[in-house]
Design goal:
Elements lengths: L11 H11 L2 H9 L8 E5 L5 H8 L3 E6 L2 H10 L5 E5 L11 E6 L10 H13 L1 E12 L1 H5 L6 E7 L3 E10 L4 E9 L4 E9 L3 H10 L2 E7 L13 E8 L1
Parallel strand pairs: 1-2, 1-4, 2-3, 4-5
Antiparallel strand pairs: 5-11, 6-7, 7-8, 8-9, 10-11
Helix pairs in contact: 2-3
Length: 245
């Protein structure tokens, strides 16, 4: 989810650049497609940001409703949408109110962890359950929490190139006791410097299973990569498939 207080007009171009590089739109589509067909299906993409995952889903033939709380993010999405079958809806994914149901619901790249409290996560899962068609599935694209825990309390920084003339430094600090991860993104160009951040609270697979059951869902599959590899103790991704009970 693009928090409107974080991803405002001053940061949205930088956020879009970083999201386009780090968010695995093609990988998400490959993973979802290995469990459910997308061509001609309806997809609810929650916390869509500037549309990286939404566009990839639409290019696979899906009819996509893309939801985000940040108006600047959706404005950027609409500028880049072209003729893709993507409808942008401004709203909080924790309070879903659609008249229709969907074949697939997606939350890409740790969006599920942006619901900070456990009760928020359960309410979000309840909303997903209400909006799934019979036989439909929801897909939570998460980093495996072990990746955050390995860092301990020390800040870890990595720098990536963004095209020819920009770079982004991502600094993450983990609070293992609180299961929280703070990510600060610093985007530097020849004459510009833009920063934005994300605060997330991770959940383990056991916790997701329990919250899903409370919300009327069940975990029916877990993968450790977008290629569909099994989830193991060495996996860097925790890709969770949910269906209604």
């Amino acid at each position: 989810m693009s928090d409107p207080s974080v991803y405002d007009e001053t940061a949205i171009e930088a956020y879009d650049l970083v999201s386009s590089m780090l968010s695995p739109g093609a990988g998400l589509v490959a993973w979802v497609s290995s469990h459910r067909p997308l061509d001609g299906r309806t997809v609810l993409d929650l916390g869509c940001g500037t549309g990286v995952s939404s566009f990839a889903l639409a290019e696979a033939g899906a009819r996509v409703v893309a939801v985000d709380a940040s108006r600047p993010s959706l404005d950027m999405l609409e500028k880049k949408r072209l003729d893709r079958d993507v409808e942008a809806v401004e709203g909080d994914f924790r309070d879903l109110r659609f008249d229709s149901a969907f074949d697939v619901v997606t939350m890409s790249r740790n969006t599920f962890f942006l619901a900070q409290e456990q009760e928020e996560k359960i309410d979000l899962l309840r909303g997903i359950a209400r909006h799934l068609e019979p036989g439909g599935a929801a897909f939570l694209d998460c980093t495996d929490p072990a990746e955050f825990q390995r860092a301990g309390g020390d800040a870890q920084s990595v720098t990536y190139p963004l095209g020819r003339d920009r770079m982004v430094t991502v600094t993450q600090t983990a609070d293992r006791a609180g299961q929280q991860i703070l990510s600060i993104f610093l985007v530097q160009g020849a004459s510009t410097l833009t920063a934005f951040h994300e605060q997330a609270t991770w959940a383990t697979l056991a916790e997701i299973r329990l919250m899903a059951r409370i919300a009327g869902l069940e975990v029916t599959g877990v993968n450790g990569s977008y290629a569909g590899e099994p989830y193991t103790a060495r996996s860097r991704e925790m890709l969770v498939v949910l269906e209604r009970q």
